[in-house]
């Protein structure tokens, strides 16, 4: 993709655009294992017929749907469309010769369903994104701004993690440029930044630097989902709690380059990753996408050798 295409994607995205990432579906071989893992991470898990639904405490929105199947694999990704916009979006998709499909079985819901070039099921629902719960206000003692006097911070710094929202997810793509162009054209996602041929970060308008993106691979799959926590304490207490519960393979603490967020990842039971993040860059309509040749983090421990491995089976 040329620099000209970067600009075209930005302009095109302004015309018709989903409002954000809503949830993702994951097929796993054992729902009980899935329930335990997401609960350990600090999320609430409830049962529905034939699926488990994962939510953030205080947010009235599904964030992950777990369905049972032979292998672990990404089941679908779901985006929110502003109320009243779905008919126009459907006409737009049909004008691009996108074939709309029935919802998969299992009560996974309404909206529009179609496939991306890698065969991933994509769902768009006409629904506002639910507000996350109000963040806890934590006083900080920063140079020149000492907010906490006669208060011992450590006494309250050890609270278990309670992620506020699903922030973003990155999926493996067999052709990151093709995937980028597809999601620009169909859903109006815009390029935020890119490590050419390797990793792509996309936004859905003002807000987080990225809500979706791609990592180059031989075939599709989930790379990671990422969940916002309040601050560095919660992020690292989360990593510690996960390790104590047996989820010891991880990567962090670090500060990413593209997006600038603090991060700590844990490997999930199926070989993909889940991330606590805090302090991600916020962007406006004026953000300019760029190509970069940079490592994934400003500072971090060494990346685990398996971090970029795709453990999902190749599509048949
Ligand atoms: Fe991330």
**Would you tell me the overall average pLDDT?**
94
Instruction: Please count the beta strands (DSSP E, at least 2 residues each).
Output: 21
Output the structural class.
alpha+beta
Per CATH, the architecture is: Roll
Question: Which series of helices and strands comes N to C?
Answer: HEHEEEEHEEEEEHEEEEEHEEEEEE
Q: Helical stretch count?
A: 5
Radius of gyration: 19 Å
Q: Strands of the largest sheet, in order across it?
A: 20-11-12-14-10-15-18-17-16-21
Beta-strand percentage range: 25-35%
Reported for the largest beta sheet, the result is: 10 strands, mixed
Report how far the terminal alpha carbons are from each other.
Answer: 29 Å
For the record, what is the CATH homologous superfamily label?
2,3-Dihydroxybiphenyl 1,2-Dioxygenase, domain 1
Helical content stands at 10-25%
Gross morphology is globular
List the helices and strands and how they pair.
Layout: H1 3-15, E1 20-28, H2 31-40, E2 44-48, E3 51-55, E4 64-68, E5 73-81, H3 86-95, E6 112-115, E7 121-126, E8 141-142, E9 145-146, E10 165-173, H4 176-187, E11 190-195, E12 199-203, E13 207-208, E14 212-216, E15 221-228, H5 232-244, E16 250-256, E17 262-267, E18 273-278, E19 282-283, E20 291-292, E21 297-299
Parallel strand pairs: 1-4, 5-7, 10-14, 11-20, 15-18
Antiparallel strand pairs: 1-5, 2-3, 3-4, 6-7, 8-9, 10-15, 11-12, 12-14, 13-19, 16-17, 16-21, 17-18
Helix pairs in contact: 1-4
